[in-house]
Amino acid sequence: MNYFPRLKILYEEKIIPILMEEFGYRSLMEVPRLKKVVLNQGLGASIYDKKILEHALKEITAISGQKSVTCLSKRDESGFKLRKNVPIGCKVTLRNLKMYEFIDRLITVALPRIRDFNGVKTRFDGKGNYNMGILEQIIFPEIDIDHIKRISGMNITFVTSAKSDKEARSLLSFLGIPFKKK
Predict the structure, then answer these.
(1) How far, in Å, CA of 49 to CA of 56, rounded?
(2) What is the C-alpha R_g of the chain?
(3) Sequence-ordered alpha helix ranges (H) in the chain
(4) Pick from 38, 76, 77, 97: CA 20 to 30 A from residue 45's CA?
């Protein structure tokens, strides 16, 4: 039994031909694709309470379906009372099938649960990558509201092979990311 996520099939069968026609690509290798999706959470308060980091690791793992890792501080910073190699966040990098599964759940289940939702902001980095901020992790159905210790946000980064922001926006729009109308 071979399983392929719905979005991967959509990309291969419908989105590639549309993008080839829209941007005039001559080869399939020129068509932009998603390389990876990175979820990360900065937890500055974990310096004082180690339980915050443990709960965040469990939550990110539940949301992504893949084990998350801790991020350590790179240098001493006296203004933040921070020492080098102290855990201050967590992240997970999704690729291939798990990446498409996560994007599908994000678009169809999580984003519609945001109150007064009318699309996500357009935040591209100039190189074809997209960053999106989530204010509350409780929009994901994998999180049990009764067991959370603290409501915290997260950053989701979509890394594409697109050479421009216009190409990346077109790719992500066809995949179903609901951008705000200008």
Answers:
(1) 12
(2) 18
(3) 6-10, 16-23, 50-64, 96-105, 165-175
(4) 38
Classify 170 in phi/psi space as left (phi over 0), alpha (psi -120 to 50) or beta.
alpha
Domain assignment present for residue 182? The answer is no
- For the stretch 146-176, pLDDT in tens is 777 777 788 899 999 988 888 998 999 898 8
162 lies in some domain: yes
Give the total number of structural domains in the chain: 1
Q: pTM of the full predicted structure? A: 0.84
Residue 58: per-residue pLDDT: 85
Rounded to whole angstroms, the Cα distance separating 35 from 4 reads 17
Sign of CA dihedral 181, 109, 36, 41: positive
Q: Which residue type does 134 have?
A: I
- In a 3-state reduction of DSSP, which class is residue 22? helix
Q: Is 90 exceeded by the pLDDT of residue 94?
A: yes
147: which 2 tokens?
């067991």
The reply to whether 181 falls in a domain is: no
What sign has the CA pseudo-torsion 160, 161, 167, 172? negative
CATH number (domain holding residue 112): 3.30.1440.10
Q: Distance between CA atoms of 118 and 112, rounded to whole angstroms?
A: 9
Q: What count of other Cβ atoms lies within 10 Å of the Cβ of residue 57?
A: 21
18 is in which domain, residue-wise? 6-175
Q: Is residue 1 part of a domain?
A: no
